[in-house]
Amino acid sequence: MELLWLLVGIVIGSIATSACWFSWNYAKKKRNRKFRKRSNHLLRSASIRNLKYWAQNIQQKYQNPLNKSERIDNLPERPLWETIVEIAPIGYIQVDQDNRLVVCNQKAATMMGIVNIQQGLMRKPFLLQLIRSYELDHLVEQTRVNNVSSQVDWVFHPAIPDPVDPVPQQGRPIRAHSIFMEQGRVGIFLEDRQEAIAIVQQRDRWTSDVAHELKTPLTSIRLVAETIEPRVDPSAKIWIERLLREIDRITNLVKDLLDLGQMDVGIAPTLDLSNVNLADLVQAVWLTLEPIANRKQVSLKYMGDDNLTAQLDESRIYRLLLNLLDNSIKHSPALQSITIKTSVLDSSILIETIDAGDGFPEDALPHLFDRFYRIDPSRTRSGLDRGGRGLGLAIANQIVELHQGTITAQNHPETGGAWIKIALPYQKS
Q: Which of 415, 275, 418 is nearest to 349 (CA)?
């Protein structure tokens, strides 16, 4: 019996000892976690305060320098600025008031074919000594004179290193953005456009190839549809007519792609010039689009000399006006009019189309004549899909260029709608 009570006491003592040990160990770990958490919070708070103090100090020196010696160029953080410029994904150069090169990162040096750039910067050479480019030099002067940022695109051809044994140098398309700085300094960001242009060319070749492949089967489909049209039941003819309209729409798309592809491959289409009466041509184009205009109750207002004639390719100018007026009808509100003005200014003939539609968003103006560019519907006042394939204005631009003319787009100050202005060479007969 005594042995039994002894065993019970040993068991109870072991349980009590284990419970005390586990309680003490848990309390110790909890205290350590609490201490570490408080320490990390204090360290983090100190780091945040130090970072805030550093940022505020830099900001004060940026915004409220006490004297010229504390301006950003002489701050102790200048090495950080140089590091950022050096690892930037685009090229950057900077010239002083004497056009001496004072900053040039490795990306710009590679782009411009400059070797040993770091050693060269110690001598502060003139810009034209290292980069022989009239476009870049003109951009610097233009920025310095006008005190505003500017941009230029050109193909840079590196200088031949050895005139005695010349090696063909491949041109590189470059886009330069300039910024005006203090004391006559100018900074220029250089963007290599070679890859972007190669992608565009590849896309244009692909669309041209697809257009060629689609041309033959579309012709065959149209012949089949025209053959079976008189043989179907009268109640089903509406579907054949709809099929033919869709075939015509796709055929016109293919024709647009082929027309655009001709200049991409270096084939300049020939112009069939003849004396064209512009007033008669405008009326012919409007007669084609009149069924669409009547549905929206949109009218045409022609302003110009009814006897004005010019040496033009009639079929291409017809296509030009057709695209412009078609766009104007689509985007004009009901019960409005579209105005076409023709006039002669010096040695140019001016053609203007004005509508009362939504107009163009400001950020879309530089891209309106790019193929496949379509305005985001959310950027229009109506918020509706403007439709189209993004080829109409691109075709119009190509036709104008073939005639050695210019075309521009903006919003009319009175109507708020699209305002397309075309200038074509004009010679009095």
A: 275
